[in-house]
Amino acid sequence: MNAEVTRQIGELRETVARLHAELTRYNLVAWTSGNVSARVPGQDLMVIKPSGVSYDDLTAATMVVCDLDGVLVEGDFAPSSDTAAHAYVYRAMPEVGGVVHTHSSYATAWAACGESIPCHLTAQADEFGGEIPIGPFALIGGDDIGKGIVATLAGHRSPAVLMRNHGVFTIGRDARAAVKAAVMCEDVARTAHLAHTLGQPVPMAQADIDALYDRYQNVYGQQPVAPAGS
Ligand SMILES: [Zn+2]
């Protein structure tokens, strides 16, 4: 490994360790479940959570580095038991730089029922561009979970998939974006559940969903300031 790759891995170890604290902050995980990974840019490598280590003990040093077949390359612990699914997503989707998995309660309740979350909220249109889709049932081990994630998300606007009877997988251009999608997925799932208990949620027009998604993805947020005189 050259010095630049070593430096990048060091940074990503810090970032991925820190992002795990967001999973506990937003109550997305219980005990040691859930995991975040980041692709090492330009390398067939990823940084991922170790298996079975308490969230309080996750540090940059405890993160592990695997190749995109899920084989441990660097680290003192065994990689997350979901490593094969993360690796499959990175192999199949070159634009993805981060992957997150949780069993967050409300989103996973929809997964338990085998139901997509229909889009009845502007916040869902913004982040997900429509429904949050349900993916197939798949057993852990091998590529089945990864295949189900990719088959559901390829060509879909949503960066989140509800894997049936299991939980949430999210993708992003980097690990932070994937964590944000996991947080927003749970938020939307909770509100959608409450709406369904209150009555019949009101459908949104597809044109409005499209307009919200386009604005949020392309216009919303801090834009570069144009230089004076331009
Ligand atoms: Zn799981």
TrEMBL record:
The keyword Zinc applies. Its EC number is 5.1.3.4. It comes from Micromonospora trifolii. Residues 14-193 form the Class II aldolase/adducin N-terminal domain. Keywords: Metal-binding, Zinc. The keyword Metal-binding applies. It catalyses: L-ribulose 5-phosphate = D-xylulose 5-phosphate. PANTHER family: FUCULOSE PHOSPHATE ALDOLASE, L-RIBULOSE-5-PHOSPHATE 4-EPIMERASE SGBE. It comes from the Bacteria. Its cofactor is Zn(2+). SUPFAM superfamilies: AraD/HMP-PK domain-like (SSF53639). Belongs to the aldolase class II family. AraD/FucA subfamily. This is L-ribulose-5-phosphate 4-epimerase.
